[in-house]
Amino acid sequence: MPETSFIVTLSSDPRPGIISAVATAIAELGGNIAETNQHWDRPTDRFFLRIAFLGPQELTVPRIEQALAPAVEKLGLDLAVTDAGRPPKIIAMVSKFDHALLHLLYQIRVGWLRADVVAIVSNHEDARRIADHEGIRFVHLPVTPETKPAQEAALLALVEETGAELVVLARYMQVLSDELTRKLSGRAINIHHSFLPAFKGANPYKQAYQRGVKLIGATSHYVTADLDEGPIIEQDVARISHADTADDLVAIGRDTESRVLARAVKSHLERRVLLSGHRTVVFGK
After folding, report:
1. CA-CA distance, 141 to 177, in Å (whole number)?
2. Residue among 41, 83, 228, 248 flagged as catalytic
């Protein structure tokens, strides 16, 4: 019998019977649970749950929400239902460094990442050739301090027009306004280098080389008004040595950034990331 897949995610106060109530409602709909993850965050005293399940082909998100409504009301659940059989729509933003974008597109092409890139947006023309090659709509939105409000309004209009669920900043080298980050809260992911100590400003890899660092890394996080300080989704590091040149650090950094961003996007699209204040709960597979 043909089946379709859904994901239920929720957060709530830690009360008895939550998993039982949700699982029972799914079973009564003819659903078969394929994966479940849960976490009780003691410092915040919040409970988080993710359930992936298969259901009859005729099952819909509204029917699932209706079936879960009594549990939502009784147990005070902040709940969301996702049709996991439909590839989520995303917009990728890039400036001139295209390594993270190319890696993202490759992982989509080979099926490791399920997503429909509805547009590639850039403040430069460089990425147009990539979009043309992939058959993806390219939107050139140049930005200056004077045109920034209009440029960001055009981006929001594009999100609305395409129905994009996520905006991926794949080395988009412009700072988003506070207003835009609020409107895209929880729906925009960024990638940046991360070192200990931190190296800010121009040419961070050269600074790291000059300081003789032994580890370089990357951090992917949700975009907030606090630059590069949003809730962290994914991180990784790579070990380097005194024999590595500044150019080697740049190459290793590109690889690390690309992999970290792709993993963060995958976790988000598979509804494995739940926000807990300034922190995240990220369920593994």
Report:
1. 15
2. 228
Report the alpha-carbon distance of residue 218 to residue 260 in Å, rounded: 7
The segments of the chain whose pLDDT lies below 70 read 1-2, 195-198, 201-202
C-alpha span between 150 and 158 (Å, rounded): 12
What does the pLDDT look like over 97-130, one tens digit per residue?
Answer: 999 999 999 999 999 999 999 999 999 999 999 9
Report DSSP state, residue 164: -
- Torsions phi, psi of 156, nearest 5? -60, -40
CA distance linking residue 258 with residue 220, whole number of Å:
10
As a whole number of angstroms, the distance between CA 119 and CA 89 comes to: 9
What's the chain's Rg over C-alpha atoms?
21
Q: How far apart are CA 234 and CA 221, in angstroms?
A: 7
Q: Which domains can be identified in the chain, with CATH numbers?
A: 3-83 (3.30.70.260), 89-269 (3.40.50.170)
24-58, pLDDT tens digit by residue? 999 999 999 999 999 999 989 999 999 999 999 99
Q: Which residue, 177, 87, 167, 179, is CA-closest to 121?
A: 167
Distance of alpha carbon 33 from the chain centroid: 24
Is 248 known to be catalytic?
no
What predicted TM-score, i.e. pTM, was given to this entire model? 0.93
Do 95 and 172 form a contact (C-beta atoms < 8 A)? yes
56 bridge partner residues: 3
Query: How far is residue 94's CA from residue 258's CA, in Å, rounded to a whole number?
Result: 13
